[in-house]
Amino acid sequence: MKPCRFHPEALAEADEAAAFYKEQQPGLETRFLEALNDTISRISRNPLIYRRIEGEVRKCRILRFPYGAIYRVSNDHIEIIAVMHLRQRPGYWKSRT
Hints:
alpha+beta; five-stranded mixed beta sheet; YaeB-like fold
């Protein structure tokens, strides 16, 4: 398993999404963060099975939420480039690669 590192903006996106879900319903932010952690675990176990979306950048859906983890694999780690809402602003993360 390769370790995962978050781009600072990806970490901020995860925090923003959790804050949004907390406002919607108590405890929903916890479920979102658990789903994100599950996604990160799935990626780190087998990073190359998820679909390439551009060059070496891949996407893995966050189950039960309209988000995806956008990432790339290097020799020693996985970089989470974005925690992206799948229905808003596609491609905004490309400047981070």
